[in-house]
Amino acid sequence: MQDAICNHQQQDFAEAEKAKYEAYEESRRHRRVERVAHEAVCKDEVHELKLVELKGRVRGIIDQTEGTAAKLKLVDVLSRLGVAYRFEPEIELLLHAMSVGLEDVQWELDGDLLHTALLFRLLRQHRLQVS
């Protein structure tokens, strides 16, 4: 009888130890998840700051670009890279100015078929009327 009580106490002790271990492991996992989440948030903040910096630099490049052909190439490259949506207002303004002064732009391109075709494609992609 006493052996049965002793075995029962040992089982209770073993179960209690197992429960403590599981609780410890769970809290350890929880701390690890919290640490990983915190690191992800910190990385997101760093990426956000880097994004703002890079957008500012690209806006500077857009503003400093001289010549119609160079501006068209820049808009095309931004589109092909898949980042044009981040600079939509600047691109719209640039293309709208080109569409308003289309005769001057065509004169500047002076029969350059590649850039003339690029101009018309970009204007049509941005829903500006050209013919």
Automatic annotation (TrEMBL):
Signal peptide: none annotated. Keywords: Lyase, Magnesium. Residues 37-131 form the Terpene synthase N-terminal domain. The keyword Transcription does not apply. Gene3D superfamilies: Terpene synthase, N-terminal domain. One of its GO terms (molecular function) is terpene synthase activity. GO terms for biological process: terpenoid biosynthetic process. The keyword Transferase does not apply. It comes from the Eukaryota. This is (E,E)-alpha-farnesene synthase. It comes from Anthurium amnicola.
